[in-house]
Amino acid sequence: MTEPTSFPADFLWGAATSAYQIEGSPLADGAGCSIWHEFAHTPGQTCNDDTGDVACDHYHRYRDDVALMRELGLNAYRFSTSWSRILPEGRGPINSRGLDFYQRLVDTLLEQGIQPMLTLYHWDLPAALDRRGGWLNPDCAHWFADYAQILFRALDDRVKLWVTLNEPWVVADGGYLHGTLAPGRHNPFAAPYASHHLLRAAAAAIQSYRAEGRHQIGLVVNLEPKYPASETATDLDATMRADAYWNRYYLDPVFLGSYPPELSEIFGAAWPIFPDADLDFIHQPPDFLGVNYYSRQVVRHDPDDWPLAAGRVRQPQQTYTHLDWEVYPQGLTDILEWVAGRYGSLPLYVTENGAAFYDPPQADGAVADPLRQRYLRDHLRAVQAALERGVNLRGYFAWSLLDNFEWAHGYSQRFGLIHVNYATQQRTIKASGQFYREVIRSHGAALSQQGNESL
Ligand code: FCB
Predict the structure, then answer these.
(1) Max Cα separation, the chain?
(2) How far apart are CA 361 and CA 125, in angstroms?
């Protein structure tokens, strides 16, 4: 007899990727440049000056990759479309060869019984639009909605789960505030406008989808629960600022119709007064919310941390990943419960969760990755705990299907359930991938099996 598990019968067991991180051939078949292509080709911007020129060559190997998904037993796959493959100039004439690639991918997924979740924007803005100001140009919201509509019309007969934006927080924070990610701007006066226009863009796409789409459209945000390092007033205030900036910045306007009050304190004179009409427009809750979860922050007041004055306290007893992110599975349960409590019981998905560890293939070619396997086990148990507490969670997507181009870190960070040899493009399912297959096959029962305790 199998143990009852708390995963609903139609739970989605998936893995996630994004276009620029895996596809390669960014300019093939008439595609235009994206800001990530330009950024990665600017010396000094990525680790080892790595670029996405080849990446996992998924553009040519997508059939093999879908076969690997099937081998893992996935019933869902989250990927993103590249705006500049479809609209080389960001707007204007459609490049049908770019669109065809995604038609073929979706058809191949469906043939294998894998449900696609399509993200319309995972950071790779067409470079031609950046030259017009990118996310600082208010028109970008409409450019995005027009691009989205092309995909709705082409694929809504086959794609049932749509995502407007992936992690707008990272786009604004990395791209416009700190400048560590494309397009590399570093300007506190610009960043709030980028965030605002991203939110307007998501709302414009939702509005267009409601007019002609037949399924569901959501938003994906990265959330990181904040815990105070002490009960002092300064640490508690810093925790509130960090929580407002990371967790409420995008969700409060979408679900509650206003920005968190802490933002004007954080940005000071750089925080604009936005028109009420914009907030009304942004306040269009999506059909579902995707949560990307990697780690937590224990917060201590730190005047040297700009602009939040909220430092991160290291936890010596804890495991840290190769990117120096604390492994903290309980935070996933906590953040899912927090979302459900604050924003209501809409369907939730964990749309990304995973860990960078370096595990080279052994002499026999196998890839043992015990730390990633433990990370996966413990975070899936955290998902199970959230389900047991009544969170309306519909699926889990591991980040990532494949080792891939980790943005400014280039190929130095490996998140895959599947190892990629970048010299030969050979794929090898890691031990964590085999474990995930077992969890999926047993519908979660493998999470509580004795043998898995020793990890
Ligand atoms: C997220 C991104 C994803 C990947 C992971 C590690 O912030 O959405 O593309 O880089 O982090």
Answers:
(1) 64
(2) 35
C-alpha span between 241 and 226 (Å, rounded): 10
- Ligand 1 contacts CB of residue 199 (under 6 A): no
What domains are there in the chain, each with its CATH number?
12-454 (3.20.20.80)
For ligand 1, is residue 167 a contact (CB within 6 Å)? yes
Q: How confident is the model at residue 1 (pLDDT cuts 50, 70, 90)?
A: very low
pLDDT at 4: 57
Residue 236 burial class via C-beta count within 10 angstroms: exposed 0-12, middle 13-18, buried 19 and up? middle
Supply the mean pLDDT for the chain: 97
**Which of 23, 262, 352, 406 is the catalytic position?**
352
User: Quick one: pLDDT band at residue 449, thresholds 50, 70, 90?
Assistant: confident
Better-scored residue on pLDDT, 452 or 88: 88
Q: Please state the length of the chain.
A: 455
**C-alpha 322 to ligand 1 mean position (Å):** 14
CB burial of residue 423 (10 Å; 0-12, 13-18, 19+): exposed
